[in-house]
Amino acid sequence: MNKSIFQLALASTLLAGxxxxxxxxxxxxxxxxxxxxxxxxxxxxxxxxxxxxxTGAGIDYIGGLWQPADGNRSLDLSATxxxxxxxxxxxxxxxxxxxxxxxAGNPSTPPLVKTVQVLATGGVATNYTFDIxxxxxxxxxxxxxxxxxxxxxxxxxxxxxxxxxxxxxxxxGQRRRHRPDADAGGGDAGAHPVGMxxxxxxxxxxxxxxxxxxxxxxxxxxxxxxxxxxxPSRGEQG
Length: 238
Known about the structure:
mainly beta, 13 strands, seven-stranded mixed sheet, six-stranded antiparallel sheet
């Protein structure tokens, strides 16, 4: 897969008077243990990929096994069976956030259609699919996806979970988040993406609080599978 959800070198500024988690970080999954020329497997509870915790049956942290969506690293969300990752970060209650990420599938084995579920605290669990029919290790055909949620508190947990109970699941790459309500000018003009800021080279700074105009953040998730069809599938609420 491609890089992890977000690449960040964070220097967070917490909102005064509010107990918060931390700014969103490492959206491209670039900061973590060395996965080598192929990949390494990380079990449930592992936190060696900065900012992220592994869930379920574990994941494969991809190095040079396949073409990344961005940077040099990505994830296969199914190690021996369905796994996932999650991160808790600062948010502002009542504000809308949008997560942008890249999705592909491990092209090595079935199922032909890989499925990942995205969920944020207080949000709606949404399933995204990827058909590996036209992809390969050299050309993963990463597809951009988006997920939107409204924060319910000062901290939000965002999770990506494979729904394929096999050893070859959906792949995740770089991820980005921003506040769509800021773009719409709905009473929050000038708000910037909370918690992360991915630069052109995959490195940026994350902070909480208003400052500069919002920039999109990205996340890339991929599972091991095959090629995908001409038109990427869209997410459907689950």
